[in-house]
Amino acid sequence: MEARAEAKYLRLSPRKVQLVVRMIRGRPVKEAEALLRFAPSRAARAVGKVLKSAVANAENNLELDRDTLKVSRAYVDEGPSTKRVQPRARGRADIVTRRSSHVTVIVAESGG
């Protein structure tokens, strides 16, 4: 049995969030939480919330034991980008792309 949690439209670049998600993929939940707690990244806080929600879903909805859970899958999808105009010198303008991401964490019982 597996439980999942998603966070959509996070105002973080998918490329930066993927670095954090790679750290926790395949690890036991306790180890993943410890890694995220001390990771010096804004994305780590957001991924930590999603992981916590997935564990809560597993405990409350599926009645799974927290100690046997591991992060079976975790991935980041690209959300919509907003485009803004940044004024530059001599009357020119640059386009600033503000990226967003969708984070999904799936936890499942480990084999033993």
From TrEMBL:
Record keyword Ribosomal protein present: yes
Taxonomic source organism: Candidatus Segetimicrobium genomatis
Biological process annotations from GO: translation
MF (Gene Ontology): rRNA binding; structural constituent of ribosome
Pfam family, one: Ribosomal_L22
SUPFAM superfamilies cross-referenced by the UniProt entry: Ribosomal protein L22
A cellular component annotation (GO) from this entry: cytosolic large ribosomal subunit
Job of this protein: This protein binds specifically to 23S rRNA; its binding is stimulated by other ribosomal proteins, e.g. L4, L17, and L20. It is important during the early stages of 50S assembly. It makes multiple contacts with different domains of the 23S rRNA in the assembled 50S subunit and ribosome. This protein binds specifically to 23S rRNA; its binding is stimulated by other ribosomal proteins, e.g., L4, L17, and L20. It is important during the early stages of 50S assembly. It makes multiple contacts with different domains of the 23S rRNA in the assembled 50S subunit and ribosome.
Top-rank lineage group of the source organism: Bacteria
InterPro entries referenced in this protein's UniProt entry, alphabetically: Ribosomal_uL22, Ribosomal_uL22_bac/chlpt-type, Ribosomal_uL22_bac/org-type, Ribosomal_uL22_CS, Ribosomal_uL22_sf
Gene: rplV
The family this protein is said to belong to: Belongs to the universal ribosomal protein uL22 family.
Name of the protein in question: Large ribosomal subunit protein uL22
Quaternary organization: Part of the 50S ribosomal subunit.
Keywords, ordered alphabetically: Ribonucleoprotein, Ribosomal protein, RNA-binding, rRNA-binding
